Amino acid sequence: MAEPAAIPGHVPPGAVQAFDYHHDPRVEQDPFGVFDAARGKRAFFSPTYGGYWVLTGAGDIREAFQHPELFSSRITGIPPTPRPRRLLPLELDPPEHGRFRHPLAAVFSPQAVARLEPAIRSTCRALVDEIAEKGNAELLADFAVPFPTTIFVELLGLPAAEAARFAAWNHTLLHAHDRPEVRAEAKESIAGYLDELVTRRMAEVAAGEGRTDDLFAVLVQAEVDGRPLTRDEIFDYVFLLFIAGLDTVTAALGFSFAYLARSPVHRKALVADEALIPNAVEELLRAYSVVNPARTVTDDVEFAGVCLREGDRVLLATVLANRDPAEFDAPTDVRFDRPSNRHLAFGAGPHRCLGSHLARCELKVALEEFHRRIPDYRIADGAVIRAHGGGSMGVDHLPLVWETLSQGDAL
C-alpha cells in the first residue's frame, strides 16, 4: 500500500477511506471487486498517492467528465507522471483541447475505421491461424498484445515487424511500477525511436516521398490556429497514441476472454449467433472497464455532496460508473441482452475517447474471428490468473487451452 498523505483541513474525518487501486493485494485477484467494495459513500477521500477524491456514482462521474471548466485534464494520472510537455490533446482543456483534437478526428472517424476493417480482420485472422492448431496459447502474448499493436504500427506506416518491439516497450512503460529504472529505460527507448521517426517522416512528407495516407502524413499536413504543427507537437501526438492506443484494447481483450473462458454459456451464445457480438462488446466493456482517469479541480465547489477545493485531485473511475447499481440493474452480471447500456468505458464530454470507433471495431473483429476458429476453450488447469490495477487495468497472463481437429474434436 502507498504511504498515506496528510488529510487536508477541508476533508471531514468521515469522508476519509483507505483505497489503493494500484497496489492493494486484492487487485491481483479481482480489481473490479476492489472497486465494488469501495462503494458506499457518494464520494470519499483516499489518503494514498498524495490524496485524492473518489466519485462512486455514474451520474456524478458523467457530470465531472462533462465539465472540464471545473475538472481539468492538465494532469490525468494518480500519482501524476512527470513529463516535460503535455500529451496532445489529452492534457489540454477546452477550447485549446478542441483545436488540437480536430486534426485526428478524420483519422478515427467511423468512416475511416470502416475502411480499415478489412486490414484489421486480415491481421486478426493471421494471428488466430497461428495458434488455432496448437491447442493452446498465452492469450496476451500470442493475440491480445500483437493484434492492436500491429494495427497501430500500420497506422504509423511502419513495417508490421516493429509491432513486437512496440509491445514490449509499452508494457514495460505502463506496468513495471516496481522497477523505475527499467521504466525509465523503456521511456527513453520509445522517445528516441519516435523522435527519429518524426524527423524522418516530416522530411519525407515535405519532399513528397513515402506514404501519404498514414498518421504522420495527416499530422505533418495538419494546421492548428492557421499554422502547421511543430515538430514537438507531432511527437507529443504520437507519444500519446503510443501509450493510449495499445494497452487499452489489449486489456479489454484480456478481461473479455478471461470472462468467456469461465462462462461457457455466454461463449456458446456468441458462437451460435454472431449478431450478439456488438452487444457483447458493449456489455464486456461496461462490466470490465479498464481506464481510471483523474482530473484536477479548478475552483472551490460543492460537488457529489462534498466540498472540493482548487487543486484537489479527483478519480473518475469508469469501473465505478459502469457497475453502479443506481444506473444498471444487477451491474456485476454480464447480460448480452441488456436493454440500456449507457456505459462510460470511453469517458464522456469533450475528452470522450477519440479512438472508441477503432477500439470497438478491433474488439468486434477479435470476438468474431477467434470464435470462428476456436469456439471452445478454457483456462489451463492450475493457471493462476493475475491482474494489475492503476490508471489502465489489465490481465497479466491468460493461458488458454482447447482441443484441435487433429486431437479428434470436430470443431
Number of helices: 15
How much helix, percentage-wise, in residues? 40-55%
Q: CATH homologous superfamily - what is it? A: Cytochrome P450
User: Distance between termini?
Assistant: 47 Å
Can you walk me through this structure?
This protein is an alpha+beta fold and 411 residues long. 45% of the residues lie in helices and 9% in strands. The chain has a single domain (13-145, 246-407), classed as Orthogonal Bundle (Cytochrome p450), CATH 1.10.630.10. It contains 15 helices and 14 strands. The strands form five sheets. It has a five-stranded mixed beta sheet. Strand 5 (223-224) and strand 6 form a beta hairpin. It is globular, with a radius of gyration of 21 Å.
List the helices and strands and how they pair.
Elements lengths: L30 H8 L4 E4 L5 E4 L2 H8 L5 E2 L23 H10 L4 H23 L3 E3 H6 L1 H10 L7 H13 L4 H27 L8 H7 L1 E2 L2 E2 L2 H15 L1 H16 L1 H9 L4 H11 L6 E4 L3 E3 L2 E3 L4 E3 L2 H5 L33 H18 L4 E2 L7 E2 L5 E2 L3 E3 L10
Helix pairs in contact: 4-6, 4-15, 6-7, 7-8, 8-9, 8-10, 13-15
Keywords:
single chain, 411 residues, alpha+beta, Cytochrome p450, three-stranded antiparallel β-sheet
Quick recap of the structure?
The chain has a single domain, classed as Cytochrome P450 (Cytochrome p450). Helix content is 45%, strand content 9%. The chain has 15 helices and 14 strands.
